[in-house]
Every structure is written in structure tokens, then in C-alpha cells.
Amino acid sequence: ATLHEYLRARAADAVEASTSAREAEDCENEAAIVRALARTCAKIGRFVRRAGLTDVKAYVEGKNGAVNVHGEEQAALDDAAHEMCVEALREEGSSAWIASEESEDVVAANPRGRIAVVFDPLDGSSNIECGVGVGTIFGLVGVDENSAAASVYARPGNDMRSVGYVMYGASTILVLSFMSTGAVCAFTYDESLDAFVLTKANIRIPTSGNVYSVNQANYRKWDDVMRAYIDECSKEKKSLRYIGSMVADVHRTLLYGGTFHYPADASNPNGKLRAVYECFPMSAIIERAGGLAISAADTRVLDFVPTSAHERMPIHVGSPADIERLSQMYRESP
Ligand code: AHM
Ligand code: MG
User: Fold this and answer.
1) Pairwise CA distance, residues 223 & 230, whole Å
2) Is the CB of 125 under 6 A from ligand 1?
3) Residue 198 burial (C-beta neighbours within 10 Å; 0-12, 13-18, 19+)
4) In this predicted model, what pLDDT tens digit does every residue of 244-269 receive, in sequence order?
5) Residues 6+ apart with CB under 8 A from 269
6) How far apart are CA 254 and CA 319, in angstroms?
7) Which ligand lies nearest to the CA atom of residue 120 in the structure?
8) pLDDT per residue over 92-120, tens digit each?
9) 295 CB less than 6 Å from ligand 1?
């Protein structure tokens, strides 16, 4: 099936199960928003693939030297991806709010809308210039009509409805969990059809895995438990894999099992990754596929309530047995 067919069927099921016209309309709108995002990601994928070529340079002139709200240098392709997403969501029309990692403020869209969209348009952008995988991450949140901007982010990750990411790697892959409880499915972009085609239905993460993924250069800045856990991984002869693109590192973790971490460290007490745009959607995908996502001993990532749209948080996601082991080590530490 194509993504369009899949969404049409799932939305029809949801409409049938709905108990009010309002709820039915929300399901239809949710499918329409996901469709718009997928179409945009196919376009972003074509730009990523052509990065460095002259026609792309005409569109995005290499690095533009701009600094985004997190103070990091922003590659121009980030800007372009952000613009493309905002444009597509505005055109689709039903989103209440649009919150992007690349924009300081949550942007108001349709005041009568009941679904807000949060996204990181191009994550891992330091990998663009050398042609290594990057991705787009998104999540949909239900809000009241005429809600305030804070209703988009000042709530736990558990509230996310549809969540997904697109990985621009050797192929362009969309991983989606549609609506609040949707199975995790992968769709591969077929250039000849200009469509995402279902390639993996109902993905379940392996119970444990042989790979751990973390920026081990930060080892000396971690707390004792994190160091002990990684020592144990190494003693157990697990393999280390780290691309430096969260989407690619988490995607591998989802399929092959194991763990991905961006812990707190001495220079970054809340880690590096943003709760709303990165940690929530990726953790929701992993948990809906049977994995676990924690930020500390017993604290689920998805229970965290951010106080700002760009707040960061520590994250450990992956196979349930492996994350449970880390959680146990934190619980037992004095
Ligand atoms: P970005 O939003 O500036 O692209 O940063 C996020 C990326 C993630 O994709 C990745 O997991 C992490 O940064 C890697 O950070 P580090 O280089 O500190 O290991
Ligand atoms: Mg990012």
C-alpha cells in the first residue's frame, strides 16, 4: 500500500470509531496534516540528495552563517526545510499552531484548528556537507480552539498523537505511528511513483540488542552510573555505533535493537536534545514499538512537562531490557 492508501484506511477506521462529528473531523485533519508533511519530506529528501549541486546552491547558498535560536550555526538547507514545512502546513490549513526547532516562537496558524504540529525540519544538519544521513522529526498535539501557544509545549510527551520521522539516508524512509495508538510502520519513498510505499508494518523493537549509541567523547563529563553502564556494554563486547544524526541512530536502534543515549553531562546539565521536537516524537515511536525511553532512573521521557518550547532533556531510548538495566543501575546508585 502507499502512504495515501494507508492513511485513507486508518482515518476511515478512526472516523467510524469516533463518537462525535468533531472527533471525526479531527481524524480527517490529522491524516491531511500527515499527508502534507510526508509530501514535504519527499521534497526535502530531493534537496538533501542534491546538496552541493549547482541548482541547489542557487536555492540555498551553502552555509549562510545565520545562527539559530540555540546559538548553533545553521546550514541553509535547515532554513529551506523549515520554510517548506511551514508553507505546506499553512497551505493544508487545519493546524492551529506550528512549532519548529528552527524558529524562536511557536507560530500561530488557524485559530479554529485543534491540532498543533511540532517538528525539527532537518536534524543532524552537521552531516549534510559530507552526505551522511539526516532527518526530519514531527509530532502532532491536540489543542483547544483559540488555545495559547503554551498549550503546544507545556504538556507531557504522552499527549502526542501522530508521531514520525523521515530519514534521508541511502533511501528515504518515513517511520510513522498514526494517531495516539497507531502501530509503528515504515514507508520507503519510491521515486518512480513519487509515493511512500509501506515496507514494514507493525515494527517491534528487539527486547535487547548488541549495539549502544552515544557520543563517547563525553565519557569523562557523565555521572558515575552512565559511565558504569557504558563500561558494562563494552565488557559485554557490545558494538558502538554513532552517526551523530539522532534520526539515523534511533532508526538503527528501532530495527536492530540496543540503546541510544544523549545523557546529561558536566557542560550540558540537561543534555543536548530538545524535549518537544526531538525527544518526545522519537521516544513515542520507540515506546509504541515496545521499547523504553527514560531521562533518569524511573522517569519516562514522555512524562516530562517542558516549560518552554526549546527546553532540552537527557534521553536514553531503546530495547526494553537494555534500558531497564540502565534504569536499575540508576535506582541502585546511592
Ligand atoms: P542539531 O539539531 O543541531 O542537528 O543537533 C542535534 C543532533 C542530533 O541529531 C544528534 O543526536 C546530536 O546532535 C549529536 O550531538 P553531538 O555531536 O554532541 O554528539
Ligand atoms: Mg535537531
Assistant:
1) 11
2) yes
3) middle
4) 999 999 999 999 999 999 999 999 99
5) none
6) 8
7) 2
8) 999 999 999 999 999 999 999 999 999 99
9) no
